Amino acid sequence: MSQVSASAAGGGAQAPPLPVFRIRRLCKTYGAGELAVHALRDVDLEIGHGEFIVLLGASGSGKSTLLNILGGLDTASAGQVLFGDQDLSAAGEADLTEYRRRHVGFVFQFYNLIPSLTVLENVALVTDIASAPMQAGEAVAMVGLAPRRDHFPAQLSGGEQQRVAIARAIVKRPAVLLCDEPTGALDYATGKLVLEVIERINRELGTTTVVITHNAAIAGMADRVVRLGDGRIQSVEGNLHKLGPAQLAW
Ligand SMILES: Nc1ncnc2c1ncn2[C@@H]1O[C@H](COP(=O)(O)OP(=O)(O)OP(=O)(O)O)[C@@H](O)[C@H]1O
């Protein structure tokens, strides 16, 4: 995976980051015949190393489908998705499982923590299947929950549980962090705290990050904002001046 982990060697400050993902004419169709749903139609996109992408679009526009294909949870019907030099669109189930384990952290709207395990244990669980994880305690500290590491999920607020889910996603030092509505179940202030954690991980670990949201204000945090509509890319816009979560208002 040298193409993914390398920086833009010798490229100078203006060089664009090396692509982590190269998506070409990606199509995803669910079902067949009259019942066919064209969730993605000819999507072309490159996502650079360390980029923070916000994915916007109406309900049903294909955001989760794209994220799931990037994360190896779903497969393309046509077209190509390259992760570095690995062709995810040609990968079998075993290779996709290995890809997810090694390279991808997922954060969903609902936290899916194991209720009978403490914060630290929920995070440590993942380190067994990772090749070069950080210490579980380090990941818990990164999301600001060191004082709560021995608490159980039921003893935590929604935002704290989401931060545990983020610690679990990043403890294996994934190349890619994929977040599907990470603040969807949270109130304003808590949502901002969670966005701060995601932004910090992107900045400090250089983790390429894709965040799906219905909240257009979050777009201010992105390097680039990708809008989907009816399975197609409607626009891709760069932010010259990224905003921190504290500067966002909605
Ligand atoms: N497993 C599936 N079987 C059939 N159709 C599906 C399946 N998954 C998604 N779809 C359809 O594909 C289209 C895109 O769905 P997708 O979940 O990617 O949209 P989305 O933009 O993430 O929507 P939302 O914002 O509501 O989560 C929708 O029409 C959806 O109904």
TrEMBL record:
One of its GO terms (biological process) is response to antibiotic. Signal peptide: none annotated. It comes from the Bacteria. Pfam families: ABC_tran. Keywords: Antibiotic resistance, ATP-binding, Cell membrane, Membrane, Nucleotide-binding, Transmembrane, Transmembrane helix, Transport. One of its GO terms (molecular function) is ATP hydrolysis activity. SMART domains: AAA (SM00382). InterPro entries: AAA+_ATPase, ABC_transporter-like_ATP-bd, ABC_transporter-like_CS, MacB-like_ATP-bd, P-loop_NTPase. Residues 21-249 form the ABC transporter domain. One of its GO terms (cellular component) is membrane protein complex. PANTHER family: ABC TRANSPORTER ATP-BINDING PROTEIN MG467-RELATED, LIPOPROTEIN-RELEASING SYSTEM ATP-BINDING PROTEIN LOLD. Belongs to the ABC transporter superfamily. Macrolide exporter (TC 3.A.1.122) family. This is ABC transporter ATP-binding protein.
